Amino acid sequence: MPEKRDRRTPTVRGRQLGLELKRLRTEARLTADQVAEEIGCSQGKISRIELAQTSVSKGDLYLMLNLFGVTDPARQEQYWRLAKEARGRGWWEDYRDTITSELSTYIAFETEASGLRTWSWGTINGLLQTEEYARATFTGEPAGRDRTPHDIDKHVEARLARQHRLTEDALKQWAILDESVLHRPIGGPEIFKAQLDRLLAPPSSVTIQILKQQTVWHAGLNGAFTIMDFPEHPSVVFVETLTGDLDVEGERDVRRYSLAFDYLRATAAGVEESRELIARARDSIE
Q: What CA–CA distance (Å, rounded) separates 229 from 235?
């Protein structure tokens, strides 16, 4: 009988457990095939556990840990606690009938992040959008033509739900916006004016800088990205593409994006000047 696949949205805790199991396996000088043979499953299952694409049972986890030489009951219990936390159902699971798996993964990570460093140049960052602006972006983008009104409602609802952590001061965001987004009236004058008003009065947990259009070369020319920082997990980068957000976890790659963000932050207008740029753009709307 083929094994039952439990393809869940990867979470930070799931990735943390997967990385730990892969590290222990590597240190024990075992291949995924060898581990699979020892515990009686397929090599694919071991790979999915390490990639946080499927949950691990307590029995399989303890067999793996014993195989890796981790026999201390207290340490085994710590790993099992992490595995149980990784199995938890997140609020975003209620939207999986309308949002992509890539976005689901993004939200799962964002929900556990303590800080975000975001660079946006096509539209205003989703966490800073008003309900009407968000609806206009979902309706206007190419995929919007294939969405039903119900689908768009669910997308907007999920986006607004993500913003709660900012207003609760549970998440810090340093947002750099390309000045062009201040002159792209998505949704029409009234909706866009309200959107710029939102940028003028963001939550206290948000810092906004504007990168002026006169900047000929800058570190964000290759596209928008978000760096997520966590208390007990390495930072992760999500890069925006036409088909969804791609996550980047390699230490060297994450460091390059962090450096790019630092360059953007140094090149962009200061916070007060940025606020003046937003205010001028808002006052210019007829």
A: 5
Global pTM reads: 0.78
Q: Residue 116's beta-bridge partner residues? A: 173, 228
Chain centre distance of CA 235: 11
Q: Which long-range contacts (CB under 8 A, 24 or more apart) does 160-165 make?
A: 160/131, 160/134, 161/91, 162/107, 162/110, 162/111, 162/126, 162/127, 163/127, 165/111
pLDDT of the residue at 262: 95
What does 18-72 look like in DSSP terms, one character per residue?
Answer: HHHHHHHHHHTT--HHHHHHHHTS-HHHHHHHHTTSS---HHHHHHHHHHTT---
Q: Pairing mode, if any, of strands 172-178 and 115-120?
A: parallel
Q: How many CB atoms lie within 10 A of CB 104?
A: 20
Using alpha carbons, list the distances in angstroms from residue 107 to 6, 102, 158, 246.
Answer: 19, 9, 9, 12
Interval 60-117: pLDDT, tens: 999 999 999 999 999 999 889 888 877 777 777 777 778 887 788 888 889 889 999 9
